[in-house]
Task: inverse folding
């Protein structure tokens, strides 16, 4: 299938979604030497067009939103064009366990940085943060695809809902560390996201950057450790070892001295004390009792 505009034509490579609200396709421009891929969103629903068209027209004057490449009409249909990335989905790579803790820490920062730099409207950012739209490449660059779910989600999106979606992604990024209760700094940040404490993308990024620096500093002294009560107890015990070792050494010396005194004062067992046997094998040994002196005279 080919979609034509007055200036260009696009060859459809794959249809990502097609329903009564929109048709989302991956396409390329055969005359584009860079072989870049694009998302063409055909807005079928009148409600979706009423919601998104004014917003999309305004975004043509937003140079920060570099993923958005304009809106046009063709044969009575409205199309929006975005950059498309074929990098793997973030959630899929997390399921495979592709990244270590420090890499995931960096990816979280790249996610918030990308959101801040694009500065797109909440209606589009909320949908771009869906699991099926967030990608990450081998260089840990986070990018978005755009599938424009529904008119309702576009209308209701605000900074509070975006913060919740960011929190959900961070929970997946650090699921293992959260289960081990080893990242209290992140837990506090997630709580702030849930409470809507950040009024802008920049504030959200700055909050995460503080968490990243704190956790990065902790990794310099070794792996991030759990913070369960058992672990905290063990940490306190280890700190007490400096004081416990001299005490134990003193107790050992005292015990050795007491044993020495005991062995000196205890009367030694006389040497040559006979060892008496009651039997040898099955033969009992009869011991004679010494006769009184009177009986010996009678013999």
Result:
């Amino acid at each position: 299938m080919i979609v034509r505009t007055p200036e260009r034509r696009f060859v459809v490579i794959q249809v990502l979604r097609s329903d009564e609200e929109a048709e989302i396709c991956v396409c390329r421009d055969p005359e584009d030497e860079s072989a870049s891929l694009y998302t063409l969103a055909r807005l079928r629903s009148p409600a979706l067009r009423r919601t998104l068209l004014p917003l999309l027209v305004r975004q043509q004057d937003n140079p920060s939103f570099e993923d958005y490449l304009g809106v046009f009409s063709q044969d009575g249909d409205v199309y929006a064009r975005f950059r498309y990335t074929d990098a793997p989905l973030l959630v899929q790579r997390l399921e495979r366990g592709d990244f270590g803790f420090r890499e995931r820490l960096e990816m979280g920062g790249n996610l918030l940085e990308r959101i801040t730099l694009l500065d797109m409207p909440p209606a589009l950012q909320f949908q771009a943060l869906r699991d099926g739209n967030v990608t990450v490449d081998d260089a840990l660059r986070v990018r978005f695809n755009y599938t424009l779910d529904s008119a309702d989600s576009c209308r209701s999106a605000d900074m509070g809902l975006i913060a919740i979606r960011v929190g959900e992604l961070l929970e997946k990024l650090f699921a293992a560390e959260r289960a081990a209760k080893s990242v209290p700094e992140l837990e506090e940040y997630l709580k702030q996201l849930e409470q809507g404490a950040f009024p802008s993308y920049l504030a959200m990024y700055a909050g995460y950057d503080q968490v990243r620096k704190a956790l990065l500093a902790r990794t310099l002294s070794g792996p991030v450790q759990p913070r369960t009560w058992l672990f905290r107890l063990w940490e306190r015990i280890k700190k007490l070892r400096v004081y416990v070792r001299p005490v134990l050494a003193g107790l050992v010396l005292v015990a050795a001295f007491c044993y020495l005194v005991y062995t000196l004062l205890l009367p030694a067992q006389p040497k040559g004390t006979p060892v008496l046997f009651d039997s040898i094998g099955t033969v009992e040994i009869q011991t004679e009792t010494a006769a009184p002196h009177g009986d010996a005279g009678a013999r």
Remarks:
- The two ends are 140 Å apart (CA to CA).
- The chain has a mean pLDDT of 82.
- Residues 112 and 205 are 5 Å apart (CA to CA).
